[in-house]
Amino acid sequence: MTVPFLQSDAIASWGRVVRASHRVARPRFTDELPALIAASEAGPALPIGLRRSYGDSNLNPDGRVIDMTGLDRVIAFGRETGVMRAEAGLSLSQALQILVPAGWFLPTTPGTRFVTLGGAVANDVHGKNHHSAGSFGASVTRIKLLRTDGSAHELAPGDPMFHATVGGLGLTGLIAWVEFRAARIPSAQLDAQDAEFGHVRDYFDIAAEAHTRFEHTMAWIDCLSGGARLGRGVLSAANWRQDGDLTPHREDPKLAMPIDAPGFALSRMAIGAFNSIFHDLKRMRTGPYVSHYEPFLYPLDKIAHWNRLYGRDGFYQYQCVLPPTTAREGVEELLKVIAASGQASFLAVLKDFGAHAPAGLLSFPMEGTTLALDFRNQGERTLTLMADLDRIVLSAGGRLYPAKDGRISAAMFAAGFPKLQDFRGYVDPGLSSAFWRRVAG
Question: pTM for the whole thing?
């Protein structure tokens, strides 16, 4: 029986800015995929997962999407080798429930565990250990890809289609399963420490030293403070603890955001107060401590539907990376513009990427410093601010993260990704997204 495409108005990205109708198919078995992915007169399709991308790379408004979350079975797992093969709809959270008790962990992980394996590959996600481990694509050993012409391909590193698919935003075909190599861990606990810095310029030296001693590093910064406290923050760093149990995380979030937050809760004053309190609390804990991996690596996952904090109109996330030669001055300039704009944002995240070769043609990470922060959608005012930030990033030789973007121009995208022209040759003509239609030119 063929799985139908049914009309739905419930498909949205994590930022919730774009709201559009989609025709959605929800397969449960791999033998249902060829018919769903086949080219159709109904227009291009797009495989999707848990929709944690913030912008429109996971949307195909008024078109067809294939929801892969029903295909979440583990195909094989080597407890001695750490190699796992699983259907593309398996979430990182589900994978960890199997990996951690066996003494393994994801080789790298984004700031949420609610991402599918297919999404992790399609966006070549990165984590707090990029300086030591690279991106997720660096650990992928094989992929099965289905194309709309009916062909099926088992891909491995070195195959040009493999490197187009890693970071390829789901545009080269439907990823049916993913095989990757996990990382060995001695326990589920981390030996961590926090170090305060009073100005963003101090971050770079503190972070450089931390990279030599810690696998995981990141900084929370206050992007509303200016002057002598511009970009003040706290650098958190951690290594796996050598002794301790192998208890995985609790699967369900502890808290929930049941409704959209009202606008006054996101005023500059309210978020400025939040940033100040958070900074003071982190400063009080400066020094070493022991933490389970969940609160350290996935702090926001404890709140279900936390994206509702930004209200009904949704929010944009802006994430850029600047190369080492321009990062210090560029990040400082970005924060000055943000602070002067008065547009409230919760604490921003600053971390460094290592000098790893990109796993995919459109992989976002490159050696340098990445800044990520959220802006409540205030229409033209917010778009104008981000356009101002774009000019700084472009001048600094940086680029933006497609998984977080919902408004980048074709020119900005092309400038940031020099292998875009090569990538075009691998795009499946039967697949598309709102993002791709905007940037493909």
Answer: 0.94
